[in-house]
Write a structure and sequence with these properties.
Keywords: ATP-binding, Cell membrane, Membrane, Nucleotide-binding, Transmembrane, Transmembrane helix, Transport
Membrane topology: Multi-pass membrane protein
Largest sheet: 6 strands, mixed
GO molecular function, one term: ATP hydrolysis activity
Number of domains: 3
CATH architecture of the largest domain: Up-down Bundle
Protein name: ABC transporter ATP-binding protein
Pfam families: ABC_membrane (PF00664), ABC_tran (PF00005)
CATH topology of the largest domain: ABC transporter transmembrane region fold
Length: 577
Amino acid sequence: MQAIKQLGRYLGPYKFFTLIAPLLMVLEVTMDLLQPTIMQHMIDTGIVNGDNPYVLKMFIWMLVSAVLGLFGGIGCSYYSSKAAIHFASDVRQSLYEKMMTYSAKERDNFTTGKLITILTSDVESIQRAFMMTLRIFVRGPLLFIGAVIIVFVTARELFSILLIIVPMLIIAMYFFTKYSGMLYRRVQEAIDGVNTKLQENLAGIRVIKAFRRETQQIEQFSKHNDALTKRFITAEQIVGVLVPFTMFVVNLGIVAALWLGAIKVEAGTLQVGVILAFINYLTIILNGLMSSSMVLMQIARAIPSGERIIDVLNKEVTVKEAENALATPIHGAIDFQNVSYRYYETAEDVLKNITFSVKAGQTIGLIGKTGSGKSTLVKLLPRLFDPTSGEIHLDGKPIKSYALSTLREHIGFTSQKALLFSGKIEKNIRVGKENATTKEIQKALDAACATEFVERLDKGMAHELSQGATNLSGGQKQRLALSRALIRQPAILVLDDTTSALDSASEKHVQQAIHEQYQNTTTFIVASKITSIQQTDVILVLEDGEIVGQGTHQELLQNNKSYQAIYASQQKAGEQS
């Protein structure tokens, strides 16, 4: 319930809607409660006595009350929908913005499937609960309380029936509501599992097909789907029992009212109109309790959704911006001082006491075995995560003292996997610099050796990329990703195995173009091949998260055993091929 209260702050801009909707519902409920009483007078005073003018008068009152009730109902639906939809939209936007602030450390706490479920299904659940609260939760209790009071005043002879059936209904609805909340929490967890499995399979569909694992993956998905189905069935069965049970109890009340009423009418102590009005009010009481219980069930279902939403919103972000953060230009001098990093508190360090210095404009190569920490090291530069210990200085100042926007604007970053967005090629390149000129785009394409293949496409820069850019080769995707990084004219350029899908000639051409056109840029090249980095100013050799060698290509060949071993193995592989 605390989660629902915390989400209440998103209602601030829509206070008018949240106030006017219940008021309009009060109008509708008042008119609904008047209808049976008007009908009672029409029968007992008008029809029984043959007073047609009085019957007409009561008919007009019934018509007026119906129209006013219609107006109140429509108005309540309009304003409650508007408030709930805007409320959910703001929550969804806040969730997305919060997710964008997550570093890799926070991101690892949530599966992709869970985040998708929270952003869609959970938000929709609290939206529906809020809408039902404004529409129905006001209506239900008012109908119930109003009908009970009217029955007590106008049909006290039959009131004893309510004293029996109403407690039965309230107790039943309490247990149904309490149990359904627990069941729907398990349903949401099962939805997470289905979404996560679906996302994994869609992302890895090519691998699944290549290894002929379709049958196994279908079986695994079926397990998650079956678990969700069973939990849904259990939850819906519990809810499904409520309606027949309440109808059974109310029908017992109607039978009791007709039996007791017949005795009273025969004795001359009760009129027929009172019995009919009582039955109508009994139905209204049922509707009030039923609608209230449905809202309570939806709230019970929304509470776990709200808790999951709050978990995301309240998740503390480890990469924070300093107060009075610097927005000064960056030149690219970098200094690592005893930097260590681990992904989890209980895990081992993947980087250990990394210390080195780089002058602005230098090119640095990083090489080492898979898992040696090369990619982790360069991800510290744009602060995708922060060191566990040690410090990084940029242009003589702590890197944490810079505004994140300023820092990342001055860094061109390309990751191992070239990620492009669906849409036009030009739009993808402008991700690097939104207001880039055509000349700047062309320069970036030229430097990345992408101009030739882009011009061969039917629409050139306007060529539409599919999701994941599956209509491009690996090398083409890498060159476009590199163009996107270069167009920023960055002070620091990070190439994380960016040219792995290129042939040697293309890779050499790209490196030469970058060297000529971006001479003042500090460049980090992460590579698995020595040929990719042997011309760099400094090479760092990493092994198990530690720097075991530092120097030029020739220096390392002469005095570093790890580098010599890598060089020898690659030379041997080259001779064999």
